[in-house]
Each structure stands twice: as C-alpha cells, then as structure tokens.
Description:
The complex is a heterodimer of chains A (about 350) and B (about 70). Chain A is α/β, with parallel strands linked by helices. Chain A is built from 11 helices and 12 strands. Chain A folds into 2 domains: about 5-170, 3-Layer(aba) Sandwich (Rossmann fold); about 225-345, no CATH class. In chain A, about 35% of the residues lie in helices and about 20% in strands. Chain A has a 6-stranded mixed sheet with strand order 2-3-1-4-5-6, sandwiched between helices. Chain A is elongated and about 85 Å long. Chain B is α/β, with parallel strands linked by helices and about 70 residues long. Chain B has one domain (about 5-65). Chain B contains 2 helices and 3 strands. In chain B, strands 1-2-3 form a 3-stranded parallel sheet, sandwiched between helices. Chain B is flat, with a radius of gyration of 12 Å. Chains A and B meet through helix 9, helix 10, helix 11 and strand 12 of A and strand 1, helix 1 and helix 2 of B. Strand 12 (about 340-345) of chain A pairs parallel with strand 1 (about 5) of chain B.
Amino acid sequence: MTIRVVHYINQFFGQKGGEEAANLPIELADGPVGPGAALQAALTGKAEIVKTIICGDSYFNENEGLACMGIREILQDIKPDLIIAGPAFNAGRYGMACGKVGEVAHGLGIPVISGMYNENPGYELYRNFSYIVETTNSAAGMRQAIPAMAKLVTAWIEKEGKLGTPAEEGYMPRGLRVNFFAEERGAKRAVNMLIAKLEGTPFQTEYEMPVFDRVAPQPAILDLSTATIALVTSGGVVPKCNPNRIESSSASKYGEYSIGGLECLCEATHETAHGGYDPVACNKDPNRVLPVDVLRDLEREGRIGKLHDKFYTTVGNGTSVANSKAFGAEIAMHLKNAGVSAAILTST
Amino acid sequence: MPVVHIATVVPISLTVGANRIVPAVAIPHPLGNPKMDPAEEKALRRSLVEKALTALTTEIEDQTVF
C-alpha cells in the first residue's frame, strides 16, 4: 500500500521563475514537480506525490493569512497522509513558508516532513510542528537532502507514524518533551551518567543546556587616566518609579539613563525593578549594585578619565538568552558610538 | 572594548562566557554590605571597583577570575 503525499515547494523549485516570480499566488499541480521527481523516485512503491502546491515566497510571507487559508482548503480537499515541504535550505522566506505549512497541517492532524539548514528562521519558529531534516545552507546540498528526507519518510511509513528520537531518526530536535517509561529510575541514570563522566566514557544528557556563544577577550585598556568607563547592570537599577516599566522578570527591554551631574545614586532617586532578589539593600543604597559614588571619586582623583554620563540597565531575571544577546549587542553599539573605552557590568 | 563582569555567582559568569570576572559580595548587594558602617562599606566597594579596573588593564588570553 502506498501513502498519499502532497509536496509544498516555492516558485523557484516549482520552475515558475526566480525573484521576479516571488509574488506568485498558490498554484496546485498534479504529481511531482522539481525536487519532487527525485523524492518520488526514492519513494517508489511506498508513497505517491499526488499533488504539488507551488507558492511564491514573497506572496506567502506578505499574505500569510490568505496563503494559510488556501493551503488549509487544499489539504482538506485532498486529505493526504503526509506532507513534504521543501527542502528550504537557508532560504528564509521559503523556510518560513514551509514552517507555516507545518503549523497549518498540524492543525488538521496531518504530519509534515521538511528539510532546512539549522539556522533557517523557519526551523527556529515552527520546529514544534514538523519533522525537519538538517540540510546544508544552499541548494548545492540537494543531493544529500533528498535521500535524508526520503529516509525519514520511509521510517515514518514503516513505523506507522511513530518516529523515534531526533538522534535515532535523523531529524533536528523539535523542542518537545515526550513522556516515556525508562527502565531505570532517575537516580540510577544520574549516577550512571556521573560515573561515565568521571571515567571519561561517552554518555547522553537527558536535559540539554542552552548553548552560549563565546567572545574573544578584548585588548586591555592601556591608560585608565584617559579612559571613559561606562556602567551597565542586569541588577535592574532604574530611576525611581521605573519610568520605562522594565519588567521585574523576563525583561523585554533595557533602559538608558543619564547620570550626568550625579555624585551618587540614592534612595530618593533610584531603585531596582528586579523581581528576583531581595530589593531592600539596593533600594536603600543603589550604589551597592551600580557603584556610581566610587567611580565619581575615581574620576575626581584622575584615576579614570571619565565616567560615561549614561548607564544601561535591564533585569536579568528569567530573561531569555535571545533577549539578553540582543540587548547586549545594542548596548555595546551605543557605548562604542559614544567613544566609551571599557564597561563595568554588574550582576545580582 | 573590554568589559569586566562583577558578579557573585562566578560559575554563572563563566558559563555565559564573561572573560574578565571579579567576584562580588552577595547576590542582592554585589558591591556593598548593609551590615558594615557606611565608611567601611564604601571602602569595600572601592576595593572591588579598583579590582575591576585592574582587570580592564590586564591583558588576558582566556576567561580569567580576578
């Protein structure tokens, strides 16, 4: 028995044209088109691509609601067993469209298998909805992508939709936790892992930590007496009453505030917006988190050239790595543009 | 542009990738201690900031806790 598959591709792979055809609305073709031919060949006897949906990348992304409605209607009409989308490699709009098709299909209870480069935003945003095989970043990797996707489709058919883990089946993690009964209890698994770690033998973590990037250490300041030093904090120090309403946890923003002419921070002018530590000590004397008083002394004594007249602040309480990274990049740019020589970052 | 991270939980600072690290006093008051008298406390704060300035003027190859 062969399963019925609908294939989603963009205008380029649908042989409608390049960027000039990116505004093409949804078209439905019979059978496989473009990369669908190689997929069909790899799946002979197991699956049949009955229809191919072709849509321009710009059209899809600029008319998302309309495009999704069109896709939903087509899928409800054809009722395929499975959808294959892409591969989209590192094409952002194409990846977003494939991801969105995955979300629409998920809503209809139809599984989707796709292929993307791991940095494609379509993977990041829609990975919960599809099984996405990792591809290279350009269509030059088509010859590897097609067999990898066909292999996953085959496994999906043979296992009647009950695919194993990403590592077993060769798709990228979907960011989903799946309950299962382990043979050994947690304490025993943890001790086994610890022993393996101590012995230097391989082990598989059950809870992946986020990956933090690394930055090369920057050159040291040569002469402090001419340097402008800036203060930055994740301790949530803000002017009294938190004028920009920086959230007490999971901050979505940072603040830039003037300390021009201020000798120190005090209870009357500043406080902390941070909701993750006891604020009493900081509210009583905010220099305990942002040491403006000491830096003014050092400035007066000529130990440093200047204290930068603005400070940057956010709340580092449950704030996502992605937000923190974006804040950091923007703050660094502000400091650089202002000619700051070095920064002191304080954390609570 | 070098950055020095003054933080109490040094393992977190190391994990997130800070390169110049100065260990601080306590989570709610990294640069102070409410139990001290004000002059003593400010001296403590100054010593930490001076250590941070030393970190900023020191060439490093890798993550360094000062």
